[in-house]
Amino acid sequence: MIEKDTYKTITSSTKNVLFKDKNSKFFGYAFPVLNEIEVKTHLEAIKKEHHSARHWCYAYKIGTETVVFRANDDGEPSNSAGMPIYNQILSFDVTNVLIVVVRYFGGVKLGVSGLINAYKTTAQLTLDASTIVEKTINIEYLIKFDYKNMNTVMRIIKERHINIIHQKLEMDCQITISVRKKEAEGIFNVFNNLYEVAIKEA
């Protein structure tokens, strides 16, 4: 079995996707996120923007191999909001994404099945409106070497079309590279076998 080294995520924020049901309004938002601090920042901004709303329900999924996720009903009946939103994240097979659905109560109760449908539909419409892209899972390596070995290292980087993220080129040189997961072991071995060149995961 070939290990998967790609994942899908959204490129930018999607805002104000509206779904209405029995006078209740549901506003959907999607944000690309890389950590829980970013999640908190977006949630605070939405609560400020929609300070008169009744509920700010959300779900997020972060990570590719080790996944962190959370589904929050924010006062709605248990599993009627957060999980339907999270299930849409799973259904679209995306990660590094936060979906928030803001509800303004319209005076008519929807019941649990109505709520599940409303939150699910809003999350679905929000993801439908988002630009979803496929990215590769990459591993970063730090390569250390003396300046005299620069040409050798740079030739391999050029031949293999390796992406340099950061470099410090002085008497002792350090280059951080990013390589696609399925090519990582091969590239690690190439540098590891070079005399006077050290490589390790960054």
Automatic annotation (TrEMBL):
User: What name does this protein carry?
Assistant: YigZ family protein
> Which Gene3D superfamilies does this chain map to?
Impact, N-terminal domain (3.30.230.30)
Listed InterPro entries: Impact, Impact_N, Impact_N_sf, Ribosomal_Su5_D2-typ_SF
| Biological process terms in GO annotation | regulation of translational initiation
Q: Return the GO cellular component terms, semicolon-separated.
A: cytoplasm
Pinpoint the Impact N-terminal domain residues: 22-126
Similarity field: Belongs to the IMPACT family.
UniProt-listed PANTHER family: IMPACT FAMILY MEMBER YIGZ, IMPACT-RELATED
Q: Which domain of life is it from?
A: Bacteria
Q: Which organism is it from?
A: Seonamhaeicola marinus
